[in-house]
């Protein structure tokens, strides 16, 4: 019963190949098993593949300004997208389903780190240029259509975006809703997709490289305030989770944790992940915005300075 | 410097969304009309379905369980505490059901097929009552069924004596006679209400 255990365990697996009989030896490789999706989602795979393909195609387009093509931007875009993909479509997702703190880590990637990296790259010009010519008119019609515009304008109202950003964190962490989401595959997917989509919307509203005058929805100064305010509710819920005595999410105990961890510790680490790194993202983005604000002001002032020297003092309102 | 493109619209939308969110919360946290002692999970998990081998060594399909109220529990026979306790509590509940217990089946799925051969499993399962069926399968079959019901299991590396612990879920899923997932029970003793819940499910006619 003891000596031959490892061998005995190997045998039945080879006898009963599952999905793809011919690829069993490859699929048996631990690394491959790790990289394969736990719960394959064609929509996510297609969206990520389309993002990479369009960006790669469009970033060499002459219409895209050189600044939008710089190396760090490409790295930031691919890294952000890869992180979102990995959080959703690798074995990591299995861990996230069965350990609360890994679930929080998954949401940190989906709602913060991944989208911030993608939005820092401001990839939209490249992606738009990457759309094949014969589809461009159609794509423009869809993006410019009234319902799409209306939905986007609504979601990007600063107050709506702020409430949605923090509200979603609270919504999915509400114990009875969290319980449902961890049992129902449909609600689980809905949770993760909504976090990633909202992350992209919110951080794009914050990280739009344009100034208010150039067409961004919010001025840099206001954005810094919003980003720092967004820390508050996250801090509160993170602190509550990590300091709360008593189990809030018993679904992890019921459905089995992956390795022995005291439920209180699991919850504490999960709370800390919701609390500290999530708030740090606000600080980092705030600093990026500050730097962009200063650089933008310099750009605005430089020609103005020359004009002022020529025609006397002009008081320009700070914007 | 304008904060909102149109401040009134934004504020109204935000209020609307807050109201909507609050509504959802209230709807989700309110207990269902017919309240069971165990958690009602109707609609959350897929219908009963599996490909496993029973303790008697033959393949068993979920279709054989149509018409029976079925309990599904994952464990292993070397389990020192959780499995025997849970199965004992289930056995107690079935005894309390009396004759109605014949409409119930308990599936004890071993996630430790290396040690739980059909014979071992058969002997173990039947010691907890005639309604208990021991099932197991290959690792792939077990992965499929645990994934379907969103539970985890993991076997530790064997020690020098070949002993190892297996981490498994504590959930008891209850399916109605049509094979629909209805309840998530955590049997905990004579007062856990499992017998009442089962009686309610047995008596319920398919809609």
How many helices of chain B? The count is: 5
Overall 3D geometry of chain A? Answer: globular
Major β-sheet of chain A, in short? none
Low-confidence stretches of chain A: 1-18, 307-319
* Amount of helix of chain B: 25-40%
Q: Based on the structure, what is the oligomeric state of the protein chains?
A: heterodimer
Distance between the termini of chain B: 60 Å
What letter string, H or E per element, gives the SSE order of chain A?
Answer: HHHHHHHHHHHHHHHHH
Distance between the termini of chain A: 77 Å
Q: Taking all residues together, what is the mean pLDDT of chain B?
A: 86
How many strands of chain B?
A: 10
Number of strands of chain A: 0
Overall mean pLDDT of chain A: 87
Report the structural category of chain B. alpha+beta
Q: Name the structural class of chain A.
A: mainly alpha
Helix content of chain A: over 70%
Task: Provide structural commentary.
The complex is a heterodimer of chains A (319) and B (207). Chain A has 319 residues and is mainly α. Chain A has 17 helices and no strands. The N and C termini of chain A lie far apart (77 Å). Chain B has 207 residues and is α+β, with helices and mostly antiparallel strands. At the A-B interface, helix 1, helix 6, helix 11, helix 12 and helix 16 of A face helix 1 and helix 4 of B.
Name the descriptors:
heterodimer, A: 319 residues, mainly alpha, B: 207 residues, alpha+beta, 8-stranded mixed sheet, two-stranded antiparallel sheet, 5 helices, 10 strands, globular
Outline:
Chain A has 319 residues and is an all-alpha fold.
Topology:
The complex is a heterodimer of chains A (319) and B (207).
Chain A: H1 5-15, H2 24-28, H3 30-35, H4 42-58, H5 71-89, H6 92-98, H7 100-120, H8 124-130, H9 133-144, H10 146-155, H11 158-173, H12 175-183, H13 185-207, H14 220-229, H15 231-243, H16 251-255, H17 263-311
Helix pairs in contact in A: 4-5, 4-8, 5-7, 6-7, 7-13, 7-17, 11-13, 12-13, 14-17, 15-17
Chain B: H1 7-29, E1 39-40, E2 51-54, E3 59-61, E4 69-75, H2 82-97, E5 104-110, H3 118-126, E6 132-136, H4 139-148, E7 154-155, E8 166-167, E9 172-175, E10 181-185, H5 194-203
Parallel strand pairs in B: 4-5, 5-6
Antiparallel strand pairs in B: 1-10, 2-3, 2-6, 4-9, 7-8, 9-10
Helix pairs in contact in B: 2-5
